[in-house]
Amino acid sequence: MNKIRGILKKSFGVVKQHVGTDHLGNKYYIIPEQKTWTGQTIRKRRTVETVSAKVDEYQIGDIPSEWEAWIRGRRNDPPTIEELLKNEDYREEIKVKSKEASEKDKLLQDQEYKEGLVSQPTQTTIKGHASATYFGKNETSQEPTSTANTFEPGDRKS
């Protein structure tokens, strides 16, 4: 295998080693440090081939956070299947607990409103700023506010 890799490396330059695939179908590779035929050293890189081949179609969540941490070098070893499953279960557990806490808080808040311990939030109506031409009016006027008859060029007062 190393002989084949060596021949490919000399022939084509860059050899990438498959490290793993996630549940979305993204493939992760490592390109080891290499020297080119000109003597330049290419540093070790980590890369991904996403399911959606177009770069502009990338969306948040297309790459699991564990794999993204590996690609960015924040972790040395690629994530294992067990780790990915454990973290996915943990995220689902957090979502359920968050939903339960939100519902419990909503029920407590409704109870406090009924008992009169807390007053209901009031709805404020925004009428605009006092310097606006439509302040105090229910709707804005379609009429122009200036006719420009009083403007004269060069009429500056110093």
End-to-end C-alpha gap: 87 Å
Overall number of strands: 5
Share of helix, binned: 25-40%
Q: Major β-sheet, in short?
A: 3 strands, antiparallel
Strand order, biggest sheet? Answer: 1-2-5
Roughly what is the average pLDDT, rounded to an integer? 79
Model description:
The chain has 158 residues and is α+β, with helices and mostly antiparallel strands. The protein is 34% helix and 12% strand. The strands form two sheets. A three-stranded antiparallel beta sheet has the order 1-2-5, covered by helices on one side. Strands 3-4 form a two-stranded antiparallel sheet. A hairpin with a 5-residue loop joins strand 1 and strand 2. The chain is flat. It starts with a helix and ends in a 43-residue tail after the last helix.
Topology:
Blueprint: H1 2-12, E1 17-21, E2 27-31, E3 34-35, E4 41-42, E5 45-49, H2 65-71, H3 81-115
Antiparallel strand pairs: 1-2, 2-5, 3-4
Provide a concise account of the structure shown:
The chain is α+β, with helices and mostly antiparallel strands. Helices cover 34% and strands 12% of the residues.
